[in-house]
Design goal:
The structure is a homodimer.
Chain A lengths: L2 H13 L6 H8 L3 H13 L3 E4 L3 E4 L1 H13 L1 H17 L2 E8 L2 E8 L14 E2 L5 H8 L3 H10 L13 H14 L2 E4 L6 E9 L5 E10 L5 H5 L2 H14 L11
Antiparallel strand pairs in A: 1-2, 3-4, 3-8, 4-5, 6-7, 7-8
Helix pairs in contact in A: 1-3, 2-3, 5-10, 6-8, 7-8
Chain A binds a DNA duplex through helix 3.
DNA sequence: AATTGTTGTTGCACTGCACGCAACGAAGGA
DNA sequence: TCCTTCGTTGCGTGCAGTGCAACAACAATT
């Protein structure tokens, strides 16, 4: 564990919240400002940070470069992108692609709704495991022991009246999701927003990612959204085919 | 300047090229592998790096999070996005939004062509200053001394037969761009690809960003692309209006 | 099954570098 | 003009980061 690197990464995280001055950062890290200055200079040299005006610093362009490179390397994303885009075009609603990595579910692609009212999200943002459709799909696809371990260890913040708040109910829900081949989030994450999700599978039937459709209730009620299920499942199936999935042996929906 | 941070950033850049092993990185940095290990562990703790299999490391999800946050903070991007998207929808071609920051021009948004043949680019990628439409727009918008300084200092790699290869020709071109209110790249960057660009302006008429349209010649010849100029200028003007531009005093096109 | 090679991991001792300090400089407001 | 508030610099010190060497885990080869 490297102290200075550690501090630098905290600086980056802090700058993610918005531009900061040298003193802001020094106070946050509880170190002398000259220390912050030196770290910032190194970050600047590599274009991870740039100055804004005389005294503010913000995140730099190297981050964009790196992260889009990394995103591009994910074959799933590239393969699914056209299907995601078409689903967005057909329905007009917000669509997401999410992936499970290292214990977390994050959005790796997204197309916004054409309507004024939209769900807020962002590529790179973590999705809650217990109250999102993509979270249920991806955790539900893990081997049983891991699934249990996760269900036991995660917190269950109650975000709406419908949010699942304990491990047993969560595990039961995951089982249901596995059976159905799709997941729903009926106002569990945000009031007034419904969501349905489906898995994108690879050659051996393994789940590579999850695709979802999110709609505010004022545009479409829950039954209406379920009416779009065939669209979603169709898109997910087409995307899976592009990822090498062969719908043979196992009788997955 | 912090040595360990410096090394860590080099590691990140290297991982941007693809997953690496510990020894790969140690060789690249010319340090002992235990040193690399410690840096990686710190990076991992902050989710900037994650393991892939037992022995490979790759970029982690914190990068996505940070970079999309940073992108979101740029108001220009948010304001222009719908216009960019519509231009893409109307023409079916690749559209870009680029911004000048700290001496470089980078793409900050993009919508891909609907056609099979596409121009390769990526958000976060640097655009060449001397042979792209967005480069000409953005450098051309800088105050005269800075413009000259840039023209004198940048390299002029000859990428096609049409590429501008000296400072004087470049400065003349920039002057022309300022007059016209738009820029062209007629096969200067890549053979077989034409491009036109226009500025997005802010409240005081200052150039905030550049919007461009790129089309492979096999789809549309240069005159055909010029036919789309009104579309581009219309989108740029609408975007400028959303950024607070008032087309009063100065008689800019 | 034993051997060899490769790669990740750990404990330790040394020293170089990252740290805090304090003084300076620049910019802006009263 | 003074005063405050920042960013910046040079310097001495101590500890954090380094290289080393031994170890562990695993795969490939014999």
């Amino acid at each position: 564990m490297s102290q200075s690197l550690d501090r630098a990464l905290v600086i980056l995280r802090e700058l993610g919240e918005g531009p900061r001055t040298l003193d802001d950062l020094a106070a946050k890290l509880d170190v002398h400002k000259s220390t912050v200055l030196r770290l910032l200079r190194t970050l600047e040299k590599h274009r991870f940070v740039q100055r804004e005006g005389a005294r503010h610093h913000r995140l730099g362009t190297a981050l964009f470069d790196l992260s889009f490179r990394a995103l591009e390397e994910r074959d799933v994303r590239r393969a699914v992108e056209p299907h995601l885009r078409e689903l967005n075009a057909r329905t007009g609603h917000t669509v997401h692609l999410a992936s499970y990595e290292a214990g977390e579910v994050i959005y790796i692609d997204k197309y916004d709704s054409r309507h004024q009212v939209r769900m807020y999200s962002r590529i790179g943002k973590q999705a809650a495991l217990h109250c999102t459709a993509v979270g249920k799909i991806l955790v539900g696809a893990l081997p049983e022991p891991e699934r249990r371990a996760i269900a036991r260890s995660i917190p269950y913040p109650k975000l709406t009246v419908n949010t699942i708040t304990d491990a047993d109910a969560y595990l039961a829900e995951l089982e249901q999701v596995r059976q159905c081949g799709y997941a729903v989030d009926r106002r569990e994450h945000e009031d007034f927003i419904h969501c349905i999700g489906a898995p994108v599978r690879g050659p051996r039937g393994e789940v590579l990612a999850a695709m979802s459709l999110s709609v505010p209730e004022m545009l479409l009620d829950f039954e209406g959204l379920l009416g779009l299920l065939p669209e979603l499942l169709g898109a997910a199936r087409a995307a899976s085919a592009d990822c090498g999935w062969r719908p043979d042996a196992q009788g997955n929906t």
